[in-house]
Amino acid sequence: MGREKKAPKKESGSSDSSQAGCLMSRPRASFQVAFRPWFWVLLAVWFVTGCATVGPDYVAPRTSLPSAWQNESKAGLASREADPEALATWWTALNDPTLSGLIQRAVEGNLDLKKAWARLREARARRGLAKSQLFPTLQGTGSSSGTWKSEDS
């Protein structure tokens, strides 16, 4: 049968649990697995297969490249100026009432930039207050007193 490892013996005054032996043997066990001979053989096979040729009957595909760069646009795709009004309502061309309703709700509930910036600052301040309770606090007081004696006394 195979070799079996025995669990380390506990000392009578030790307060460690039985997991201490397992935790200490894990790094050594993974080190032993990494240096077994079959590991190196598999690693070598993996590297060699990455450099393998494609075979003796391989024929490279023919590629045809144009003789010069073609920059002309195809017929019917001539560029033209975009209509700003049409761009502002592009989704209406899709004839989707759900999409139109969602966009309408977004436009109505949209905040201007100053209001959004104020809400962001408020949220960051609230987050700072909430996080401040996670850290210890330091408090201190100071006082001073002095006594002077008159030279006349």
Could you describe the 3D structure shown?
- This protein has a domain of 40 residues.
- The radius of gyration is 39 Å and the shape is flat.
- It has five helices and no strands.
- With 153 residues, the protein is an all-alpha fold.
- The protein starts with 18 loop residues before the first helix and ends in a 21-residue tail after the last helix.
Tell me briefly what this model is.
With about 150 residues, the protein is an all-alpha fold. It contains five helices and no strands.
Residue stretches low in confidence (pLDDT < 50, at least 5 long) are 13-23
Q: How large, in whole angstroms, is the Cα Rg?
A: 39 Å
Largest sheet: none
The helix-and-strand class reads mainly alpha
As a percent range, the share of helical residues equals: 40-55%
- What is the overall pLDDT average? 76
Q: Report the total helices.
A: 5
Distance between the termini: 103 Å
Topology as a string of helices (H) and strands (E) = HHHHH
Strand content: under 5%
Instruction: List how many beta strands DSSP finds.
Output: 0
Shape: flat
